[in-house]
C-alpha cells in the first residue's frame, strides 16, 4: 500500500518519519564534510526559484550536496520579486554573499513533461510556454533589482523536464542547452557551450554552474532506459504553509504555499480546492488531510520564539481561509504546527490540533 492510500494518521507519521530521516542525513559527518568541501571549491551562492512539485528536486538531479542550494518554493512556481518578504529574503541572501566576496547564481525554473502534457505544471494549466514566459518575467525583475550587467547576480532561466529530470538552460537569444540531448562524452565541452549560450556570465559563477550541469548530465544518463513511475494524477493530501519543507520531495503529496505573497488566501484556497477534488474523485481517502505550518529559525531565544509565533499565525490564517471557503473540507483537517532548526534541518512539532 502506497502512502497516499493509507489512513490519515499513518500518512502523517510517515511524513514525520521522512522529516527525521532528512535531518539525520543532513547532520551526518559525511554530509557536513561534503558541504564544506563543496563550498570551499564552489563558493558562489545558489538560489533556486521553483514550483512546489515534489518531482523538482534540484540537489538530487544535479548530484549536489544537501544544503548548498537555497530553494524558494511556491504553488505553481509563481513569484513576484516586488512582494515585500520575498524581496527582503533575496536581497539579504545577495548582501550576505557579496559581503563574503561571492557572486549569486539565481536559477529560475519552470517544469514540463515531454511524454504527457497533463504531467506539466498545474499552476499554468500545464502550459509550458506560459510557465517559461513567467520565468522570464522573474528574470527581468531580478535584473531590475540587481543590475542588467549580471556581474554580481546572474539570473538564469532553466526548464526542468520531469520525465527524465533534465535541465534546459535558456540563453538571451532564444537558444537553449538541453541536457537530455547530450551524452557523457559531451561533459568536457560544457564550458564552451555555456560560454556561447551565456556570454555575459561572470567566470566565477560559470565555474560554479558547471558542476550542476555535469551532475545533471550524469543523473540524466543514469536514468536512460530505466522504467520510472510517472504519476499523472493529483493525489496531494498535505497543505504546507511557510518554509522549511526541504524534506518534502515526494511527487503529488504536498501543496506548498510559501509565505511570500501579500495575499496568501488565494493560494491557500487553491490548494484546498485541489485537496477537496482529490477526495471527491477518490484519488485519496476522505478520512482527512494535513495542514502543516512551519517556520525556520537559526538561534534559540527570540529567533525561535518569533518562529513559533509566526507558525501559529500561519496555521490560524490558513485554517480561517479553509473554513470560510471549504467548510465541509475543514471538518476533515488535521493541523500540525512546527518550527525548523535551520542549521540541522530538524522539524520540531510545537502543537497538534
Fold blueprint:
Blueprint: H1 8-27, H2 29-41, E1 45-51, H3 58-62, E2 69-74, H4 84-99, E3 104-112, H5 128-146, E4 153-161, E5 166-170, E6 176-178, H6 190-197, H7 203-223, E7 238-242, E8 254-257, H8 265-280, E9 289-297, H9 302-325, H10 327-330, E10 333-341, E11 346-352
Parallel strand pairs: 1-2, 1-3, 3-4, 7-8, 7-9, 9-10
Antiparallel strand pairs: 4-5, 5-6, 10-11
Helix pairs in contact: 6-7, 8-9
Assign the structural class, choosing from mainly alpha, mainly beta, alpha/beta, alpha+beta, or little secondary structure: alpha/beta
Largest sheet: 6 strands, mixed
Number of DSSP strands?
A: 11
Helix-strand pattern, N to C? HHEHEHEHEEEHHEEHEHHEE
CATH fold topology of the largest domain = Beta-carbonic Anhydrase, Chain A
Sheet-strand content, in percent, reads 15-25%
Counting DSSP H or I runs of 4 or more residues, the number of helices is: 10
Text of the CATH class of the largest domain: Alpha Beta
Question: What is the straight-line distance between the termini?
Answer: 26 Å
Query: Roughly what is the average pLDDT, rounded to an integer?
Result: 92
As laid out across the biggest beta sheet, the strand order is 2-1-3-4-5-6
Low-confidence stretches: none
